[in-house]
Write a structure and sequence with these properties.
With 295 residues, the chain is of the alpha/beta class. It is 41% helix and 25% strand. The chain contains 9 helices and 12 strands. Strands 3, 4, 5, 6, 7, 8, 9, 10, 11 and 12 form a 10-stranded mixed beta sheet that branches. Helix 1 crosses helix 2, helix 1 crosses helix 3 and helix 5 packs across helix 9. The longest helix is centred in the N-terminal third of the chain and has 28 residues. The chain starts with a helix and ends with a helix. 27% of the residues are buried. The model has no long low-confidence stretch (mean pLDDT 87).
Length: 295
């Protein structure tokens, strides 16, 4: 068994045919057939069932796919780490973040670099569910996401609270900076909400809060992308209703106003692999994230 054979096998599983996998990998199709046959003969197993032109993965093949994916990911990370060391860095740090937490991560990176630590970074933005999976599979050293965290196998720390704000174009004189906006004031206002691709989160909490207040929440759009919400507000589709932390500064041409919806605030979360001994540079980066949010 070698990494090339496993790479070929993974591609066939993901693209569901030898021809498609060969096209993506830019190798001759017989090379894939040979690699898979070698794996099957070496272990005495069947990885695929061949049905005419199609292939279906056997239970053994599914098990191998999960293990091979993890192994190939670790091998890729090791290669990146060694290349970073060869370029003069002592550590290559893999950090995940959601769109909401991007300011925290960029501030942390700037502080680490200012301290003179010889670290290179691989930064990955993603949905909370994806980040949880990547941390669990050790593809990330840690990530800043937000509560709730569904994966009970991770180390989780609740961080600074976030507030819900109304995002408007600057000059919208319907709102005032004095005090918080109540749910009733937003009755009938077209709103644009941030929503996770999978699992519960801020969207569901907002809808529940409006229902508890006896107010109809007029959602004209929801999006997983904060930038898309800004653009929709810019084009007068509606007003954004977003969770933000203390470091968030609205983009030029926009204003934000606090909204009173929750008795307990939304919180950011620091997630990391449980039971893994972290390098000192990683521990320092995690501590900086905590400090930046508490400042």
């Amino acid at each position: 068994m070698n990494l090339r054979q496993l790479t070929y096998f993974r591609a066939v599983v993901e693209h569901r045919s030898l021809a498609a996998a060969a096209d993506v990998l830019r190798v001759a199709q017989p090379n894939l057939s040979v690699a898979i046959k070698q794996l099957e003969e070496a272990w005495g197993v069947s990885l695929f069932e061949r049905n005419g032109r199609g292939l279906s993965v056997t239970d053994t093949g599914k098990m191998l796919y999960e293990r091979a994916t993890e192994l190939l990911s670790n091998a890729s990370a090791l290669d990146q780490d060694m290349r970073a060391i060869g370029s003069g860095f002592t550590v290559r740090m893999r950090v995940g973040f959601t769109q909401i937490s991007i300011e925290i991560i960029t501030a942390m990176v700037a502080k680490i670099r200012a301290e003179g630590v010889a670290v290179s970074f691989s930064l990955r933005q993603g949905e909370p569910q994806l980040l949880e999976t990547m941390v669990e599979q050790r593809q990330l050293d840690f990530a800043i996401t937000h509560m709730p965290v569904a994966n009970v196998g991770l180390g989780v720390e609740a961080l600074a609270p976030m507030k819900i704000v109304l995002l408007c174009r600057s000059g919208d004189d319907r709102w005032t900076a004095d005090g918080e906006i109540e749910a009733g004031a937003l009755a009938g206002v077209p709103l644009i909400l941030l929503r996770r691709r999978a699992g519960g989160g801020i969207y569901e909490r907002i809808m529940t809060a409006f229902a508890a207040a006896g107010v109809s929440c007029s959602v004209v759009a929801d999006s997983t992308d904060m930038s898309a919400i800004y653009r929709l507000v810019e084009h007068d589709v509606g007003l954004g209703l977003l969770p933000v932390h203390a470091l968030h500064v609205p983009r030029p041409g926009f204003s934000i106003y606090p909204v009173n919806l929750f008795s307990t605030p939304e919180r950011l979360a620091l997630i990391y692999p449980r039971g893994r001994r972290q390098l000192p540079a990683v521990l320092r980066a995690m501590e900086l994230c905590r400090t930046i949010l508490s400042a």
